[in-house]
Design goal:
The structure is a single chain. The protein has 404 residues and is an alpha/beta fold. It has two domains: 149 residues, Aspartate Aminotransferase, domain 1 (Alpha-Beta Complex); 227 residues, Aspartate Aminotransferase, domain 2, CATH 3.40.640. It is built from 14 helices and 13 strands. The protein has a seven-stranded mixed β-sheet, sandwiched between helices. The structure holds pyridoxal-5'-phosphate.
């Protein structure tokens, strides 16, 4: 039989590294091994009760037809209200398109924005899916490195060096996956200023998916607020992380009507609108006051676990970390243990060893564009975190020769 010939594009794609680690962790569990899974990019909680109730009620009582492609009017209105409060400006529901998760908002935005070879600037460490999504849309990712020593913050001067007329989009993610680092008002202002000066045609895309999960007084700021007068911004948002609704697949994009219409047109010809029951849940997530209270409780839990993680992981020999401003990840710099003179060839080898020998599943930094790192999620039960940190202590003591 003639083998199916995959397209060049399909052959260039790699499965998501984070999902690959989770899959290996699940397979080990199925073999009966104990695994502490700190690899997942999602909260371990259920969505707030009003979300579950709204979905169940609707499923029981009404037919579940297609939603309008750009989203249910009540969800576009609820998202417009929520985003208006964050961006501190009037937002019309017509400027919002509801998508199947923030991921689809970004993927469709890249498709409607990029011509072949157009450049998209990403700050490393970046979310694993950005480069793949840019390439799928025919664009070319351009990476600006950030350093642990600068708190993994994108330096406007470093950004300036890659900006020119070929850059179409600059992606900002604050707080970020995988570092949890947020951009302060002044940095955002300087970034907008440098984009205006060096790439006056380029647009900023803000991925604000973690903006509601923040710590230690850090508050995520809208780029519109930080850089008044700079209007070339498209903002991507959603309920996946903030409301523990990753599996519901609802996100949204806020942008000029022509962008919203184009994204909606791509969606209409590919997936259709986001799942109707999920949109009903998202309306409750954004409108029911009890959900705001549930968010505060979830965030308090994350904050406690973050404290535990900082204390325990901060003590590991040869590992350094930058305390996250938001999200639920810690990005450990373990480069001291990687390389030709070190115990492990690279971070992938170290992460594989941690999983196979100690049952701790975390994601190596390489797929995030930052070799020598490890991303750990602290959105896990306290007992799992405790056991995982015990195991990591033993593992790192062994790496430096102080343990068995
Ligand atoms: C930075 C970032 N943006 C977007 C997403 C995707 O969000 P959603 O699940 O709503 O598609 C993720 C999920 O991991 C993420 O980490």
């Amino acid at each position: 039989m003639t083998a199916f010939r995959l397209s060049t594009l399909a052959r260039s794609l790699r499965p998501s590294a984070t999902l690959a680690v989770s899959a290996r962790a699940k397979a080990m569990r199925a073999e009966g091994r104990t695994v502490y899974d700190l690899s997942a990019g999602e909260p371990d909680a259920r969505p707030p009760e009003p979300v579950r109730r709204a979905v169940a009620q609707r499923v029981e009582t009404e037919p579940m037809g297609y939603a309008p492609v750009p989203g249910l009017p009540e969800l576009r209105a609820a998202a417009a209200r929520d985003l208006a409060a964050f961006h501190r400006r009037e937002i019309d529901p017509a400027e919002i398109v509801v998508t199947c998760g923030a991921k689809q908002a970004l993927a469709n935005l890249f498709r409607v924005a990029l011509e072949p070879g157009d450049r998209v600037v990403l700050a490393a460490p970046y979310w694993v899916s950005y480069p793949a999504m840019v390439r799928l849309a025919g664009g070319e990712p351009v990476v600006v490195e950030t350093r642990a020593a600068d708190g993994f913050r994108l330096e406007p001067d470093a950004l300036a060096e890659v900006l020119d007329g070929r850059v179409r989009l600059v992606v900002l993610n604050s707080p970020a996956n995988p570092t949890g680092v947020g951009l302060d008002v002044e940095t955002l202002r300087r970034i907008a200023e440098v984009v205006d000066r060096k790439a006056p045609e380029a647009w900023i895309v803000t991925d604000d998916i973690y903006r509601k999960i923040t710590y230690d007084g850090f508050e995520a700021t809208s780029a519109f607020v930080a850089a008044p007068g700079f209007e070339r911004i498209v903002a991507v948002d959603g309920v996946s992380k903030s409301h523990a609704m990753t599996g519901y697949r609802v996100g949204f994009l806020y942008g000029p009507p022509e962008v919203v219409r184009a994204v909606s047109a791509v969606q209409g010809q590919t997936t259709s609108g986001a799942a109707t029951p999920s949109q009903i849940g998202a309306v409750a997530a954004l409108s029911d006051p009890a959900c705001a209270e549930a968010l505060s409780r979830m965030n308090a839990t994350f904050a406690r676990r973050r404290g535990l993680a900082l204390e325990r992981l901060g003590r590991l020999p040869g590992a350094t970390l930058v305390p996250p401003d938001g999200a639920f990840y810690l990005f450990l710099d373990v480069s001291a243990h990687c390389g030709s003179n070190a115990r492990f060839e690279d971070d992938v080898a170290l992460a594989t060893w941690l999983l196979e020998e100690y049952g701790v599943a975390c994601v190596p930094g390489t797929p995030f564009g930052h070799p020598g790192g490890l991303r750990l999620s602290f959105a896990a039960a306290d007992e799992v975190l405790d056991a995982a940190f015990d195991a990591m202590e033993t593992a790192f003591a062994r790496i430096v020769g102080a343990g068995a």
